[in-house]
UniProtKB/TrEMBL annotation:
<dbReference type="InterPro" id="IPR008571">
    <property type="entry name" value="HerA-like"/>
</dbReference>
<dbReference type="InterPro" id="IPR002789">
    <property type="entry name" value="HerA_central"/>
</dbReference>
<feature type="domain" description="Helicase HerA central">
    <location>
        <begin position="10"/>
        <end position="73"/>
    </location>
</feature>
<dbReference type="Pfam" id="PF01935">
    <property type="entry name" value="DUF87"/>
</dbReference>
<protein>
    <recommendedName>
        <fullName>Helicase HerA central domain-containing protein</fullName>
    </recommendedName>
</protein>
<dbReference type="InterPro" id="IPR014588">
    <property type="entry name" value="ATPase_Atu1862_pred"/>
</dbReference>
<dbReference type="InterPro" id="IPR027417">
    <property type="entry name" value="P-loop_NTPase"/>
</dbReference>
Amino acid sequence: MTVSVDMGTDGTGSSVPIDVEELLATRLLVQGNSGSGKSHLLRRLLEGSAGMVQQVIIDPEGDFVTLAEPFGHVVIEASDHSEREIARFATRIREHRASVVLSLEGVDVEAQMRCAAAFIAAMFDAPREHWFPALVVVDEAQLFAPAAAGDVPDDIRRASLTAMTNLMCRGRKRGLAGIIATQRLAKLAKNVAAEASNFLMGRTFLDIDMARAADLLGMDRRQAEQIRDLQRGSFLALGPAISRRPVAVKIGPVKTSARSGGVMLLPLPEQAPAADMRDLLLAPVPIEPTLPLVAPAPRPVPAAEVIDAIERPAPAALPDAEPVDPGKLAEAIDRALRDLVADPDSGFRANAVLFQDFQTRCRMLGVSAASIGLAEFGRRLAATRAGIDLAGDEDWNQAMALAAELPDDMLGAFLLIARAAREGDACPSNDAIAAVYGTQSPGRVKRLLAFIEQRGLIASRTDLAGKRTIAVPQLGWTTAPSEAQAA
C-alpha cells in the first residue's frame, strides 16, 4: 500500500500526492523567492506525514515550533543549550525516534551553522541499530550549505557544508531523507542540490535561478519563463515521488501557522496632532551618567597620616605553606583522573577542557596539580582510560615510546589494546575502543585501527570464526581472540 500526502491540486483540480516511502529514498529540493510559499509547502508536507514517519526540522527562524502542540513535536531552543548538548540531543533523537524542531531563532549566523553542523553530524554518526527512517527538513538551506565563502570563518563553513553534504549524499543508507528549501539555487552548493531527485520550484525572477530551476525540471529556456509567472503558493513539481512529468500544483491549506503570522496591511492608529506627535518623538533623551575623561586629583594626605604609616610596625610575615606529602599528591591526582574518566561525557570533550576540570578536582581534594602540564595530563588521562599504571613499569615506558608518533586522542585506544595484549586478555571490542576514543561511530573506530596498523604499531587478524586478534609486534604481546562487535 502506498503511503502518500496530498499536497494540493493541479490545473485540472486533481489532487497531487507525494509518496512518502519514495521520498525517503529520493529526497526533495524546494526553491522559491521570499514570499513564494516555501514554508507553507513544508508545513503542508509535515502536517500530512506526521504520525507516519519521524520528522526532524532545522528551523532558522522558529516558524515551525507551532507544530509542537497539535502534533507532539519536541521543540529544542538552541539558544538555551551548548553545542555539545545539542549533539547529545541528536543522538537521543535517533534512538527514541522522536519528532523534533531545532529552533535556531535568537542566535547569530555563525552559531546557527555550528549548531546545525553538530546536530546533523551527530544524527549521521548514530549507531547502526538506530538507523530508523526520518524526514530531515532544513529550511533556508543556503545558510548551511553556501555555494561560496562569505563572512563566516572557513572552518565553520566547511563543517556545516560537510554535514549537509553527508545528509544529502550518504544519509539515505542511514534512514535520513533530506528535504531542503532555499530562496535561491545560485546560493546553494551544487553538491547538496544535485542529490535531490524530487523538485518543487516556486516563483523566482533572477535569470540564473530560473536557468538552474529549468535545468532541474528538464525545461527549455522558453518554458522556464512560466516560473516567473507562478502565483504565491503554486509550484512546478517533478520527481519519482510526485510525477514523472512537470506538473503545476497549488498547495492546499494547513492547520497551523507560523508565530510571526502573514504579512498584511493593518489600519494605522488614530494619529495625534502633528505638534503633539513631534513633542512625543523628539522629547529630550535623558543623559546617562558617564565616567569622567580625566581622573580626579588624589585627596591630599595629611602629614600626620604619613608619619603614622611610617612608624606603624610591619605586619608579621605569613608562615610558609607546609609542603604537600608526595604520596598524598600522587593519590589525589590518581583519584581526580579516575573520577574524570568515570564521567560518561568526558570522552567527548577536548583535553584542554578536561585539563581545567582536572585542576578544579585537584584543588577540591586539597592539592595543586601545577607540576602537571597539558601534555603530561594527556598521557596520564589516556593511561587511566586504558586502565594501566605508568609508574615504575619499564614495559609501559616502551609502549609509550612506541606511541609517541600517534596523535594524542589515539593514545588511549592504543594503550587499551596494548594492555589486553600484554595480559593475554580478550581483544577489546569496537564498542570498548570507541568509548576510549570518544566516538559513537563504528566507521571512525575502523579508521582508527587502520591508521595505527599502517604505522606498524599493531597487527590484526580475523580467523574463520570471525574472532579478531591484535598483536603489538615490537613488544611481542598478543591478545586472545574475541568478537570485534560485543554482543
